[in-house]
Amino acid sequence: MVRKEIGVCMFLAAGLVLGSGCGQASGGRKEIEVSGIAETSVSEALEDRSGEEGERGDRAGGKADVSGGAEAGQNGREAAADEGSADGDGSGNGNGNGNGIGTEIGTGNGIGTGKAETLGNEDAENMRKRFGEDCIGEQTFEAELSEYDGKVWFVPFGPGQGNPDFHIQLMQNGTVMGEIKPYVPEGLQGKAFASLDAVSFYDMNFDGCTDILLIETYGDTTFAAVYYGFDRDGEDYERSFTVQEQLSERLSAQAGEMTVAGVRKALGDTRKNGKFARYQEAYGAVARLLDMSDEDGAYNMTVTYGLIDVDGNGTPELTAGVDGYYTSLYTYSGGKVCTLIDKWSYGVMGNAGYEYAPGNNSLRNYNTDYAGAILYTTYMAVREGNRLETVAEVKTVNFDDVNGNGVLDEDEMGSVGYYGVNYLNGKEASVEECSVYDSGEYEMIRGDLSLEGVLKELGVR
């Protein structure tokens, strides 16, 4: 499936290769039956009160995470209502209430502002009265999400007569906007659901969408479950959450403490996006996350990294990918990592990779149809808001399309290579008019550094 930041599907081919297809594919996206995504702002109010980056304390064994997106945990509403004194340990595992307030407000990942309200007047029992006896009231929250008009309820349900499995609903004005089915590790299949121990919403993979981190217990085993969020993408894709099995398994295995704070520590104690002190720290966090998320190692494909200069602004961009299969590209500005390219695949269907003109803020992409009979050249640039946008698209038809149907018909094959016409953004144009978008010499977007190599280059651990 495809998630893209620009308006057209862009392709790249080194030569005349048979076939066509969209190279902007996100790697191995697995749907979890969700029609809604939570993009919410970072809850900064508690941080501002405490002056700390870490999560604030628990109450009654519950975990209240305010480290990213609109995070909250068990009995977080009570902590907010009580304006509790913080004698927690700053990691979400103390015995105090944290510095709770009624409304947590903050700034998201550059695509919207929202707030998550913790309702101190409605305890867990009230939640069950409102949403049903199977509702897990301690982990039920109302949030104002940038993808929705108005507030949305995050409502988890334990197994009950209506549904034998643990599941989560996103609700608005009494209507179910989306439903999330649980991820259960293979080794725990058949075990009974025991508890939902903590919930955290924040942009884990730096793509501008809010992701979901759950701490769950099945049987007597507690584990992390990570879902990446995707916003609606035109008519092609609805809002969705995609489970990250490899990342979930590795976090569950490597986190010393199975809490939100423990998971964040396993990821390198990363700051919230927008709070990084410098690009070296930010790119180190991205690289560590990608390495832990890497599912390609099982197929003897190694993710490599690199630092390149796309736009000449003095701050390099980070590349990551598997050479010949896909590439990703990240930029940094104002304490924030922004994803420009997210696992765009290439190497098949007429697409051979993505290029950039060093320092000139120009990316170029080729793709072919009908073994090169039609060539698409797309030019892109980083624009305001650190988004990759299409500047121009040139379509070159290398055959005489007699009937004008845009398809290489059998009786037109003899004209391939003996005829050519260019269309610039849909209008016929000369070679000279099309060539003005070239910005000098182009190089492939790729890296040759290992994780250890790029961390050393960045000067971070």
Task: Sum up the structure in keywords.
461 residues; seven-stranded antiparallel beta sheet; 31% strand; single chain; 8 helices; disordered N terminus; alpha+beta; globular
Describe the structure.
This protein is of the alpha+beta class and 461 residues long. The two termini are 34 Å apart. A hairpin with a 2-residue loop joins strand 7 (167-172) and strand 8. The relative contact order is 0.14. The chain has helices at residues 45-50, 76-82, 124-131, 245-254, 260-266, 279-293, 431-435, 451-458, and strands at 56-59, 62-64, 103-107, 113-117, 141-144, 151-157, 167-172, 175-180, 193-202, 211-218, 221-230, 240-243, 304-308, 317-322, 326-333, 336-345, 355-357, 362-369, 374-383, 387-397, 421-424, 427-429, 443-444.
Q: Strands, helices and their partners?
A:
Blueprint: H1 45-50, E1 56-59, E2 62-64, H2 76-82, E3 103-107, E4 113-117, H3 124-131, E5 141-144, E6 151-157, E7 167-172, E8 175-180, E9 193-202, E10 211-218, E11 221-230, E12 240-243, H4 245-254, H5 260-266, H6 279-293, E13 304-308, E14 317-322, E15 326-333, E16 336-345, E17 355-357, E18 362-369, E19 374-383, E20 387-397, E21 421-424, E22 427-429, H7 431-435, E23 443-444, H8 451-458
Antiparallel strand pairs: 1-2, 3-4, 4-5, 5-6, 6-7, 7-8, 9-10, 10-11, 11-12, 13-14, 14-15, 15-16, 17-18, 17-23, 18-19, 19-20, 20-21, 21-22
Helix pairs in contact: 6-8
Provide a brief overview of the structure:
This protein starts with 44 loop residues before the first helix and ends with a helix. It contains 8 helices and 23 strands. It is 14% helix and 31% strand.
